[in-house]
């Protein structure tokens, strides 16, 4: 296994040291192979909004396993989950289930090109939409960490891949703009309006750390795409059912043409989806000519976990509870810093949160895009990470990732986290 892991960020290369190997999880806690206990703010990188091993999800999965683990044929479970998603996100008039976020985005972009008859895609610097070749251009998440550490001298401009092994031609149809910069996106459309098939955007950037959209930014993207005939694709793999039940599109009141989902909709099992306007989705095979298929797509175990999770999330007051927990954590961290920007002793800290996703940036400047996110002190973050880990708090092992709060995080866990944060700031200031 390269690096001893199945996904690069897990290897701790961004923070140093050796990764911990997890044996089990319960509620907001995980336990490593040596039975050390940690309060978990990774939550499997977002899917576990209910916490680990939620009893209702576990019991439903036990029953599902007894019926069969995979059929390679349609099931009623797929229809049930599709209807739940449509009820939460009416813009998703038709949906196709796949197995990963990468697959969902790749398929959505192919569909956008087929629908518009155009080739170019606009993405934003620091946005991560999976590891398909055409999107590994100024990408966030683990790519951002790798580029900072090992290949930061490589040329990294519009249409130039971030990583070796991607032929430059694969990225020539990828245009890149700074996030939260309406002027830059307008310039791209002035130059390429008749060539642009779609804009793909994380409505809340969460793969360069958490960076909210500035007022009017998403509205501007919607207006530009409508005027030009391009599609607006929301990558809600992270934000879907996370920042609100109806995702970021409900939170901000912006209706995209296509939506990519993942993480929460599988309740911790591998599943993703893409969907949107019926006239667009009807081009997907077998209804139309745009081919896409998957052996384990619509897997009954993943559908079961997703159905149980979304049914719990649909209950009254759930997102109020989640907001209260997340706000309590944010206020506690900010209090430990004296204010939200500068920690005691001069350590620069900026805290950014939308709903139940939050990032602590080690920078004194407001983080509004990828360039300002990259100004954060990643060496200091690494020391911060290990201080917190030693105190039993498991955070993302990279400055460019988000922390996730779950419904299983109680006041006791949040108070313990805030106390550890304060001790860590003091230790960092003294070192």
| Computed structural class | alpha/beta
User: Main β-sheet, in a few words?
Assistant: 7 strands, mixed
**Ends apart, CA distance between termini:** 36 Å
Oligomer: single chain
Rg, alpha carbons:
21 Å
What is the number of strand segments? Answer: 14
Low-confidence stretches: 147-157, 339-344
**Percent of residues in beta strands?**
5-15%
CATH architectural grouping of the largest domain: 3-Layer(aba) Sandwich
User: Can you write the helix and strand succession as a string?
Assistant: EEEHHEHEHHEHEHEHEEHHHEEHHEEH
Helix content: 25-40%
Number of helices: 14
Question: Looking at this structure, what is the CATH superfamily of the largest domain?
Answer: Type I PLP-dependent aspartate aminotransferase-like (Major domain)
| CATH C-level label of the largest domain | Alpha Beta
Spatial order of the strands in the main sheet?
4-10-9-8-7-5-6
Written description of the protein model:
The protein is an alpha/beta fold and about 425 residues long. The chain folds into 2 domains: about 1-55 and about 315-430, Aspartate Aminotransferase, domain 1; about 55-315, Aspartate Aminotransferase, domain 2 (3-Layer(aba) Sandwich). It is built from 14 helices and 14 strands. The chain has a 7-stranded mixed beta sheet, sandwiched between helices. Strands 1-2-3-13 form a 4-stranded mixed beta sheet. The radius of gyration is 21 Å and the shape is globular. Residues about 145-155 and about 340-345 have low confidence and may be disordered.
